[in-house]
C-alpha cells in the first residue's frame, strides 16, 4: 500500500500461451457430422504447435450410426486455443469442447 492506493510491481511479462505451456491441460472433444472433416482435423493435429498437450476424442454422428460414437485418439496432441480454433473452423466440425 502506498497511502490509500495499492501499488503492484510486475517482475515478468510473457504471452499467456507460453505461461501455461507446462500446465496439465484438459483434452478436446471434437464433434464431427461429415467425414470430410477427418483429413482437416488430422492435418491440424499433426502440425500441432507449442503449448499444452492433452487427449483428443472424436465424437461422430451420422444417420447410419445407432447414435453418437466417441473415439479416443492414441497419444496426446497440442490443445492450444489456436489448435482448437483451427479445428472448430473445419467444414463438418459441429463443435469443439474441452473436457
Can you give a write-up of this model?
- The structure is a single chain.
- The protein has one domain (19-98).
- The strands form 2 sheets. A 4-stranded mixed sheet has the order 4-3-1-6, covered by helices on one side.
- The mean pLDDT is 88.
- The protein has helices at 16-19, 37-47, 81-88; strands at residues 28-32, 53-54, 56-60, 69-72, 77-78, 93-98.
- The relative contact order is 0.27.
- It contains 3 helices and 6 strands; from the N terminus they run αβαββββαβ.
- β3 (56-60) and β4 (69-72) form a beta hairpin.
- It is α+β, with helices and mostly antiparallel strands and 99 residues long.
Largest sheet: 4 strands, mixed
Roughly what is the average pLDDT, rounded to an integer? 88
- Strand-and-helix sequence, N→C? HEHEEEEHE
| Number of H/I helices | 3
- How many angstroms does the end-to-end distance come to? 40 Å
| Helix content, binned percent | 10-25%
Rg, Cα atoms, Å? 19 Å
* Unreliable runs: none
Question: How large a portion of the residues is in β-strands, by DSSP E?
Answer: 15-25%
Strand order of the largest sheet: 4-3-1-6
Amino acid at each position: 500500500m502506498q497511502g490509500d492506493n495499492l501499488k503492484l510491481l510486475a517482475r515478468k511479462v510473457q504471452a499467456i500461451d507460453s505461461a501455461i505451456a507446462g500446465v496439465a491441460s484438459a483434452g478436446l472433444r471434437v464433434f464431427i457430422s461429415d467425414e470430410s472433416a477427418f483429413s482437416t482435423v488430422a492435418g491440424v493435429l499433426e502440425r500441432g504447435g507449442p503449448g499444452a498437450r492433452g487427449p483428443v476424442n472424436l465424437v461422430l454422428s451420422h444417420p447410419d450410426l445407432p447414435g453418437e460414437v466417441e473415439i479416443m485418439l492414441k497419444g496426446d496432441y497440442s490443445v492450444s486455443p489456436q489448435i482448437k480454433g483451427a479445428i472448430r473452423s473445419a467444414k463438418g466440425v459441429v463443435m469443439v469442447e474441452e473436457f
